[in-house]
Amino acid sequence: MSPKHVVFKKVSRDKSVAIYMAKRDFVDHCDFVDPVDGVILIDPVQLKGKKLYVMLSCTFWYGHQDMDVMGVAFKRELFLVTRQVYPELQDKEKLTHTKIQQKLLQKLGDNSFPFFFEFPDNLPCSVALQPGPSDVGKKCAVEFEVKAFCGENQEEKIDKQSSVRLTIRKIQFSPENSKLVPVADTTFEFLMSEKPLHVKLSLPKETFYHGEPVKVNAEITNSSSRSIKDISVSVEQVTNVVLYSNDKYVKSVAKEETDDSVPSGTSLKKQYTLYPQLAHNKDRRGLALDGRLKHEDTNLASSSIVKQEVLKEVQGILVSYKVVLRMIASGEVSLEVPFRLMDSDEMVFEDFKRAYLKGVVYGDDEESPTEA
Q: Sorted alphabetically, which Gene3D superfamilies does this protein's record hold (predicted)?
């Protein structure tokens, strides 16, 4: 069966409501974001005349879910919108936007209702700091969730037995710009040396996709009297937590240490290849990831793209990458160049396909892929 015909299903504990969605990864293409759509199936008898609502939320978490200091929880709602699904306020045809919704409505019958949300332009993408092996509970993350619940009104306290929650991800994608070629070029001067050390560091392009090797070109012209040795090249992930703590984490996610040397009066021109992948950094505490869906593989966090006129603080967590060239010349000297690490449209589909073929169960035990 093709993954195109697989949907995600989650049912409430009392079986009064179930949620169906064709995907859980939604791509931010910079100029537009994939809308969130799905179908809700209800049991009118179980609802007992109550209304049914669907909520889309974006939440920044800092610390454990149950952490509370002086009555202030370490979380902030960055976005929250709620819509009434049942009794329907509009005809189903007006709320049905996709073919998969149409198919689900036909299959599920008269007690099924569509929902549709669009992301605003100022929201961040999903990101989570990887906990250490001994850490328990949520630590630091920006998470998105779709929740269906019933009540007399949307302000009423939600009954967990008759509500259902499905975690989704908003993933950053940016097309390559062949005109932008990251380059850093500098000269180092030393005491007791008449001539300088010249270093140039460049990448073939600005945007690399997860799983793609990063090729680094280094040119070192040593006209100084110093001898250059212990050359290393690394990809570093820089994570800024811009809400609550303003913490900054710099972690090497790929590194090559060499015995290359550049004696006085010589030069070196060489290409290094680095592989910044989560597979090489499993269980490293504090590493930023592209969010996480339970039991599902993820990637290193994509580079954050903050759109114009959007406050950085609203993003919660900002992630960037750089290549750093280091060497010893009596002391350490270094040069760095920034680049972007991103998801690709094809990668999102391939991750979904692999997960399905493995028979992965997503989220809680009640939540799994099912045939549309």
A: 2.60.40.640, 2.60.40.840
Token couple for 94: 């007006």
What CA–CA distances, in Å, run from 249 to 169, 239, 296?
23, 5, 25
Cβ–Cβ < 8 Å for 253, 235: yes
8-172 and 183-342 share one fold:
yes
Of residues 198 and 73, the one with the higher pLDDT is: 198
Q: Please choose, from the candidates 91, 117, 109, 155, the residue with its C-alpha nearest in 3D space to the C-alpha of residue 21.
A: 117
Q: Which residue has the tokens 């989704």?
A: 168
- Is CATH 3.40.190.10 the right assignment for the domain spanning 8-172? no
| pLDDT score at 329 | 86
* Peptide bond before residue 87 is cis, with ω within 30 degrees of 0: yes
Predicted TM-score (pTM) of this structure: 0.82
Backbone angles phi, psi at 347, to 5 degrees: -70, -40
**DSSP of 218-237, one letter per residue?**
EEEEE-SSSPBEEEEEEEEE
Closest CA relative to residue 302, chosen from 161, 207, 204, 166: 207
Q: Tell me, what's the pLDDT at 352? A: 47
Alpha-carbon distance 181 to 186, whole Å?
16
Q: Which of 47-61, 303-317, 344-358 has the highest mean pLDDT?
A: 47-61
Find all residues with CB under 8 Å of 189, minimum gap 6, and list them: 196, 197, 224
Where do the domains of the chain lie? 8-172, 183-342
CA dist 146 → 13, 285, 300, 330, 352 (Å): 16, 28, 24, 57, 19
